[in-house]
Amino acid sequence: MAPDLLWYEDTEALRRAAEYTCLHITHGGEEEEKVFVVGHDWVAMIAPCQDHPPMQMCLQNLVQLLSDPYFAQMCLAKEPVSILLLTNLEQRSIYNDDFTVPLLRLNRIGKVSADRLSLLTSCNGLLCLRDLGYKKDEISVCNPILKDYMILPQLRSKRVHRKILGFGITQSTNQYKLIQILNYTDQAENSDNFQVQIFTLGTNMWRNIGYLPYELIQPSYGAFLHGHLHWYAHSPDKTEFMCSFDLENEQFQPFPGPPIQDHGQCRPVNSISVGVSGSFLYLCDGFLESNIDIWVMKNYGVKRSWTKEFIVVNPLVSKLQRIFGSIHILNNGVNMNISDEEATEDAELLMLFGSEDLIAYNVKNKGVRKSKTFGNKSNYQAIPYTASLVSIKDAVMRVRSQAKHSS
Length: 407
Prior knowledge:
Blueprint: E1 20-26, E2 34-40, H1 42-46, H2 59-66, H3 69-78, E3 82-87, E4 94-95, E5 100-101, E6 104-105, E7 117-123, E8 126-133, E9 136-143, E10 148-151, E11 160-169, E12 176-184, E13 195-200, E14 206-211, E15 215-225, E16 228-234, E17 240-246, E18 251-255, E19 272-277, E20 280-285, E21 292-297, E22 306-312, H4 315-324, E23 327-329, E24 348-353, E25 357-362, E26 368-370, E27 381-385, H5 392-406
Parallel strand pairs: 1-6
Antiparallel strand pairs: 1-2, 2-3, 3-27, 4-5, 7-8, 8-9, 9-10, 11-12, 12-13, 13-14, 15-16, 16-17, 17-18, 19-20, 20-21, 21-22, 23-24, 24-25, 25-26
């Protein structure tokens, strides 16, 4: 397999290029908005999941199987992680010098404006999307595999100056929740006045739960891991620290961060990034313009497990960090916990800066190259993505059933 595709899966069995398909979502219009998923053939995965797979399955049985929540969770556990790409190019290929992967068209999911759609994050195969325009700010959740989607109710309120979002699932009740943190235009000068609202799939309403106790710096949407959303933050006295939001009890709390220097008000907002790669929380510190330090939390919640895993010294990377601020590592945990001795010659981190530049950092020789993984240079958004059969309808019905039994 070509090197640029090594990160798109996490099992040795799927390294043959012929086993990959490429999917995209089409939203209509001359400048069609598309979401591409590099993954493997679902038909090839369905058969091994059954005790006695028949040679031919009638359509009714197949529909029943796909709609079974247990089967959806079983498939989610087996599905390798891909990279999901959102772009408005009319045609796009994922390629390098050796081969080109074909595209497979999916049915349209909702009607959105091609130039305004933002790919925020994903959880268990469900995507969180934002369509932002004049007098319009719609948040939607969709499963591109099932072509299943829900547009969340839009609040009729004052103009919003800044919005911070997050999406994830609770650990004990398996409820999907979205958080939005709002600073209104008439309160923009007061950075302490951020209202926190929660939406649980299946409730049809946003709930106010109070005000944000900190000033969140990065990222613009929470990094989700183990039932919590994570940010880098400032306290009222401008002390730097990490914080998390527990989706179960809907509370903010400080979170053990890496031992980086506290620069307080001197730190530029775009000098730090927080994200999740596989089962690892990471923090990229680019305060020193000569290099970027990448810290990885090896054991979740354990402060002493933070390790400065990579020091990227490269003028191009430093320049991109200053321009775009955000760094998204797309490896999904691959090569995030590897020593120089264990690293192979082609072990790399795939880093997306903003929506412009994709950089591959070689873990072994510390070299940097511009990756051509996503074809011709153009604006795009990309996130690690695990395709699934998790149904939004089932998630909604589960919450309503829980509410009915608790009343």
